[in-house]
Design goal:
Elements lengths: L2 H6 L2 H11 L4 E8 L6 H18 L2 E2 L2 E9 L5 H13 L5 E4 L3 H14 L3 E3 L14 E3 L4 H14 L4 E7 L2 H16 L3 E8 L7 H10 L3 E5 L4 H12 L8 E4 L5 H7 L7 E4 L8 H13 L7 H20 L3 H8 L3 E4 L2 E5 L6 E12 L5 E12 L7
Parallel strand pairs: 1-3, 1-4, 4-5, 5-6, 7-8, 7-9, 9-10, 10-11
Antiparallel strand pairs: 2-3, 11-14, 12-13, 13-14, 14-15
Bound molecules: P-hydroxybenzoic acid (PHB).
Length: 388
């Protein structure tokens, strides 16, 4: 940490951070995520994936022992996220922040990261502009622009020319709406209606009716993965959209943690995403097998791979730079590695992960389990929200 940034901090915070430097052989990473409430599965998936990484790679990165600390935001809660980041930085003396599921929570910690020159590795929060809010953000998840443009282009290639978009009304939903419209209309398609659903919506029937009224060939959706995606996908079936021949185009709606519960109704649904637990590689098989060994009953999803690669990136940064934040960010830029999702790298311009995007279709595997089967690959896609 340099002089200027130390002066920017309140005196007690600076003192505490300096005290933290005394025990530099252990690097502490504070992971901020929901561990309670409707989105508690996110925190659980993060923690389990980090445990898999540590089981495979041990507790050391270079000369440093890495210790993870976990803090619960309970959901979309920017004030709590900021307070937790402050507590982690000041009281616990963490050298890195990780996690961050929801866009508003990530935005709420940006300034603290900048002031304290602490790297913040975002495992999920997926609105493109987040990484521009602090030079200390790096993201190992995905963005809505990154997966939605391929979805719209694939729909056009299937001969679909009209669609209605349905998104949760906040950052990532608006990115998804804009990305879909831009790519779909550029290829000659028409968006008949753009529906924005309040974040607290639990009854999707009225929105499904509005979609049906437009008689589009397809409905594109984005909702935060968890209870909303599950309820939305059920509503698509129960309100007769499938029967009406309206093609489902999604991103995270067929999340592995709720896929079995969707049952037969999920078969054939198409999504574009950066990770399928059914991805065909040795590395992914090792990852999903160890996850199931350590945590029987757990299945890998986007949260798992975001956290697993977040841990991989943090190990790389720590081995290269220990607790020196600016040097750690430098070490992240351009870093490339093999992930359970396929080849990935950190774009030095945006500090976002460049990765393959897969078009998937829900099907049953040879054991009768529902999976997101990859049917097409768009290679090496950057964050199209910032670079296009
Ligand atoms: C976000 O708030 O950025 C977010 C949350 C959940 C998702 C995707 C994006 O599944």
């Amino acid at each position: 940490m340099n002089h200027t940034s130390r002066r920017l901090l309140a005196a007690p915070m600076a003192l505490a951070l300096m005290a933290g430097f005394a025990s530099a052989d252990t690097i502490r990473v504070g992971v901020i995520a929901p561990f309670s409430g409707p989105f508690a599965i996110w925190g659980q998936q993060f923690q389990q994936a980090i445990e898999v990484y540590q089981e495979q790679h041990g507790p050391m990165a270079g000369e440093h022992t890495i210790e993870f600390l976990y803090r619960d935001t309970g959901g979309t809660n920017p004030d709590v996220a900021r307070a937790l980041a402050q507590e982690l930085l000041i009281r616990e003396g963490v050298d890195y922040i990780g996690g961050l599921v929801f866009t508003p929570n990530a935005l709420a910690v940006a300034e603290l990261l900048t002031q304290s020159e602490t790297p913040g590795v975002i495992f999920n929060a997926a609105t493109s502009m987040i990484t521009q809010q602090s030079d200390y953000f790096v993201r190992t998840g995905f963005t809505l622009w990154q997966v939605t443009v391929p979805m719209a282009e694939w729909a056009l290639a299937q001969g679909i020319t009209t669609a209605v978009t349905t998104v949760t009304d906040y950052g990532p939903g608006l990115d998804a709406e804009n990305a879909f419209r831009e790519a779909f209309t550029a290829g000659g398609g028409t968006v008949l209606d753009s529906i924005r659903m309040p974040i607290q919506t639990t009854d999707f029937a009225p929105f499904m009716q509005r979609v049906r009224d437009q008689s589009p060939e397809a409905v594109f959706g984005f909702l935060p993965a968890g209870p909303p995606t599950y309820a939305f996908t059920r509503a698509y079936n129960e309100n007769g959209l499938r029967e009406a021949g309206i093609t489902f185009l999604g991103t995270g709606e067929t999340d592995e943690t709720t896929l079995e519960a969707l049952g037969e109704a999920a078969i054939g649904l198409n999504t574009a995403y950066h990770y399928s637990a059914a991805h065909d590689s040795d590395m992914n098989r090792e990852f999903t097998t160890m996850l199931a060994q350590l945590h029987p009953g757990s299945v890998a999803n986007l949260a798992s791979v975001g956290a697993y690669d977040g841990a991989a990136l943090i190990y790389h940064m720590v081995a290269a730079a220990g607790g020196d934040g600016p040097a750690a960010i430098q070490a992240a830029l351009g870093h490339a590695w093999e992930s359970p999702r396929g080849p990935v790298s950190i774009d030095p311009e945006t500090r976002h992960i460049t990765q393959n995007v897969y078009i998937r279709e829900v099907a049953r595997d040879e054991n009768g389990r529902l999976i997101n089967r990859e049917i097409d690959t768009i290679e090496s896609v950057p964050d199209l929200g910032l670079t296009r």
